[in-house]
Design a protein that fits this description.
This protein is an alpha/beta fold and 795 residues long. The protein has four domains: 5-223 and 361-394, Rossmann fold; 232-350, Alpha-Beta Complex (Pre-protein croslinking domain of SecA); 404-585, 3-Layer(aba) Sandwich (Rossmann fold), CATH 3.40.50; 627-793, Helical scaffold and wing domains of SecA. The protein contains 30 helices and 23 strands. The chain has a seven-stranded parallel sheet, sandwiched between helices. Strands 15, 16, 17, 18, 19, 20 and 21 form a seven-stranded parallel sheet that branches. It has a three-stranded antiparallel sheet with strand order 9-10-11, covered by helices on one side. Helix 1 packs across helix 4 and helix 26 (635-649) crosses helix 28. The protein binds adenosine-5'-diphosphate and magnesium ion. Magnesium ion is lined by residues 104-105, 210, 493.
Length: 795
């Protein structure tokens, strides 16, 4: 047998894990004899030991053994050795690959318990509300029995309005079950809080991500965005669209389908100059126009109606490509959405500015430690390592896997393939064996469902619209005679149990109508059969008309004559042709995977700048939020910085101009005479301005009878300055990312340019924030409402 290096490495890791495993097991017999109270008392004891300096690692074995024994008593489930092994990996901050049905939910309870003992909070994060709630409800009795608190990190009612302090209560639990989206939005909102009391999320300490590849690889490209006020609207979208329609592909612009890029060529630039009456389109003053042209080109070439979006009631509604779900309310950023609206000649909607944003990649980097689990992490290992420095440990299954993954079946086109799939389903169904047919798009799923009904085969159609209902249906997909047609996302995370007797028929048969964007998703889908050592089978059907082939294949390969002229019967018989088609499909999937990896890398790079800046700003905010007084704060230095910049970067030509500046930034009431010689002595001028600032601030301070209100006032003025500066910056960086992508630079240059611009804009922002602080402090007007609360009117 050949020795596979990956396997060898995994074996080494497993051996090490097994040493810890032994220790956990060694406690089993004695813990079994403990009374309930004695077992429960362990939690207090562990906390005590941690307080006295013990490390989490040092109590791992014992604490896992406690949870294990408690689980037996409370849940009636005794964690298996493979589950203990997974649990060890999770505490290490790595990724555990555990197959479907192996019991990841229970596995996670041990590291969650251990890490929650610190009191810093431990999260279990999963893909949707339904799963979070299900796992929370199932595991909560265990934690509570052991004396820890657990919460569902949100109120599961659409549009629910949280009462004051309610969120904090949810987040204060020892163990919190939630979703990536909820945690992410709350993280952003938490950092927009303007009082210390308004904060509700503790610093992010430890989390375990369930279905980790789907959350941090597949979904990592979708940033979370909190939108603010509408951006000043450009009325160019329609004009530019009309211009774009006069251009010819490959002559005026180029479209690289594989890389998903499109750009203007020289003749196109020429035409733009003519059309808009310019001498040079690329002159700095026309950047907005260039940006709009690029957006319009992307809207035209890279987005297709009914595949990327639908038009519903005159609005563009995006489609989630993987699930086929409508992404209602979601908009593409930075004017792209508006360009598509112009393309389809529907009303142009408002382009909102971005208040705060974070990608999932970065969200999880905010945790001191995170780990993950999934059935298909191994295939993402390189990326987990490159992006997060995590290794993947493959945990053996409790029982050997019996599922048979059959070779792909090969067809020339979709028509013949779909017919063969139908035939196959009908055949298998005759034996009463359950079938799960998985398609890439909702359209296909609907097609098969209808066709099966037409053949008198009742079936359940799942197209990712109601996760809870889907979970119910898919949990029954292993019953006799059951036929389930689903898109790839539908019912994820739900275990398909076989009805007794079904195993004799070969278990669940999974049929997949095409290869997905990457082989990880293929494997997730295959893994729906054969849980916990059940029998089962999976098979993927392919053709040259598959999505990945159309999108990622080399067109010349596709136009190979033998293939084009081949009849479907010939394909059935010819091994050579079949192999050729298979190669094309495999190749296309590899290109697709590379494309995905590259995009994530780029996003990761882009995000680095924002992330560093975000952390600095949030830390700055927290410092101010935490302040109880400003006696030691160096206001003079602050003012000095601001005025130095003013004096050295702006020409101050007259006493009048200087007075204007003072009115606008320091005092409405300034009345003193200004000696003209100040204008020529920069250092004296700065000192003079600092003096004015101090006067103005002192006057402000005297207005407050109570020190408490003064502190509060200063805090608000500063936070307001930070937030408005940062919000502008986030919005700017977001747009920069959109713009710079379409500049025709090499990949490395794009990133370099972006970081460079991001850095210099950060410096500009810091000065701007300081300026606003000074201004807010001097010119804001404090007022009280009827209840005596301080109200501030900012200048
Ligand atoms: P996964 O997330 O790994 O696919 P689940 O956590 O959904 O698997 O668990 C699958 C099923 O196995 C659930 O019904 C769960 O209750 C059960 N299970 C898990 N661990 C054990 C155990 N140690 N003993 C008995 N049943 C278990
Ligand atoms: Mg699960």
């Amino acid at each position: 047998m050949m020795i596979n290096i990956d396997q060898a490495i995994n074996q080494t890791r497993i051996r090490k894990i097994k040493r810890t495993l032994k220790k956990i097991i060694s406690y089993a017999a004695s813990f079994e004899t403990l009374s309930d109270d004695a077992l429960k008392a362990k939690t207090v004891e562990f906390k005590e030991r941690l307080k006295n300096g013990a490390s989490l690692d040092s109590i791992l074995a014992e604490s896992y053994a406690v949870v294990r024994e408690a689980s037996r008593r409370v849940l009636g489930m005794y964690p298996k050795e493979v589950q203990l092994m997974g649990a060890i990996v999770l505490h290490d901050g790595n990724i555990a690959e555990m197959q479907t049905g192996e019991g990841k939910t229970l596995t996670a309870t041990m590291p969650l318990y251990l890490n929650a003992l610190t009191g810093k909070g431990a999260y279990l994060i999963t893909t949707n509300d339904y799963l979070a709630r299900r796992d929370y409800e199932e595991m909560k009795p265990l934690y509570e029995w052991l004396g820890l608190t657990a919460s569902l990190g949100f109120v599961d009612i659409p549009g629910y309005e949280y009462k004051k302090g309610e969120k904090k209560q949810l987040y204060d639990a020892d163990i919190i079950y939630s979703t990536n989206g909820r945690i992410g939005f709350d993280y952003l909102i938490n950092n927009l809080a303007d009082t210390k009391e308004g904060k509700f999320q503790k610093p992010l300490s430890f989390c375990i991500i369930d279905e980790v590849d789907s959350i941090i690889l597949d979904a990592a490209q979708t940033p979370l965005v909190i939108s603010g006020a509408p951006r000043v609207q450009s009325n160019m979208f329609n004009v530019v669209k009309a211009f774009i329609d006069t251009l010819t592909k490959t002559i005026d612009y180029e479209h690289d389908e594989k890389k998903q890029e499109v750009w203007l060529l020289a003749p196109g630039v020429q035409k733009a100059n003519q059309y808009f009456g310019l001498t040079d389109l690329y002159d700095a003053q026309y950047t907005a126009l260039v940006r709009n042209i690029n957006l319009a080109l992307r809207a035209k070439c890279l987005f297709e109606m009914n595949q990327d979006y639908y038009i519903i009631d005159g609005e563009i509604v995006l489609i989630d490509k993987i699930s086929g779900r409508l992404l209602e309310g979601t908009k593409l950023q930075s004017g792209l959405h508006q360009s598509i609206e112009a393309k389809e000649m529907v009303d142009i909607s408002e382009d909102m500015s971005v208040l705060a944003t974070i990608t999932f990649q970065n969200l999880f980097k905010q945790f001191d430690k995170f780990s993950g689990m999934s059935a298909t992490s191994k295939l993402g290992e390189k990326e987990f390592f490159d992006l997060y420095g995590k290794v993947v440990v493959q945990i053996p299954t409790a029982n050997p896997i019996q599922r048979i993954d059959l070779d792909d079946r090969v067809f020339i086109n979709k028509q013949t393939k779909d017919n063969a799939i139908l035939e196959k389903v009908i055949d298998i169904h005759k034996t009463t064996r359950p079938i799960l047919l998985i398609t890439r798009t909702a359209d296909d799923a609907e097609y098969f469902s209808k066709a099966l009904f037409a053949n008198h085969i009742p079936n359940n159609l799942l197209i990712a619209q109601n996760v809870a209902k889907e979970a119910q249906i898919i949990s029954e997909a292993g019953y006799f005679n059951s036929v389930t047609v689903a898109t790839s996302m539908a019912g994820r995370g739900t275990d398909i149990k076989l009805e007794p007797g079904v195993d004799a028929l070969g278990g669940l048969s999974v049929i997949i109508s095409e290869h997905m964007e990457n082989s990880r998703i293929d494997r997730q889908l295959r893994g729906r059969a054969g849980r916990q050592g059940d029998p089962g089978s999976s098979q993927i059907y392919i053709s040259l008309e598959d999505y990945i082939v159309q999108r990622y294949s080399n067109q010349t390969l596709l136009h190979n004559e033998n293939l084009l002229n081949a009849k479907s019967e010939q394909i059935e018989e010819s091994k050579v042709l079949k192999r050729r088609i298979k190669q094309i499909v495999t190749r296309a999937q590899i290109v697709s995977e590379e494309h995905g990896t590259l995009t994530r890398q780029m996003n990761n790079e882009f995000d680095r700048s924002v992330s560093v800046q975000r952390l600095k700003i949030y830390a700055e905010r927290d410092k101010i939020l935490d302040k109880e007084q400003f006696d030691t704060f160096d206001f003079k230095q602050l003012a000095h910085d601001v005025f130095t910049r003013y004096v050295y970067t702006e020409k101050i030509e007259s006493v009048r101009a200087l007075k204007q500046y003072i009115y606008k930034n320091i005092s409405f009431q300034f009345e003193d005479e200004i000696d003209i010689s100040l204008l020529t002595d920069k250092e004296r001028l700065i000192d003079f301005l600092v003096e004015q600032f101090e006067k103005s601030r002192e006057a402000k301070k005297r207005q407050f009878k109570d020190e408490f209100f003064y502190v509060h006032f200063i805090k608000k003025c500063m936070l307001k300055a930070i937030d408005s500066g940062w919000i502008d910056q986030v919005d700017y960086l977001q747009q920069l990312k959109g713009n710079i992508n379409s500049r025709q630079l090499g990949r490395r240059n794009v990133i370099f340019e972006y970081h460079k611009t991001a850095l210099s804009s950060y410096e500009a922002m810091t000065s701007e924030i300081k300026r606003r602080m000074v201004r807010n402090i001097c010119l804001s007007i404090a007022d009280y409402d009827k209840k005596g609360n301080l109200i501030i009117h900012f200048p």
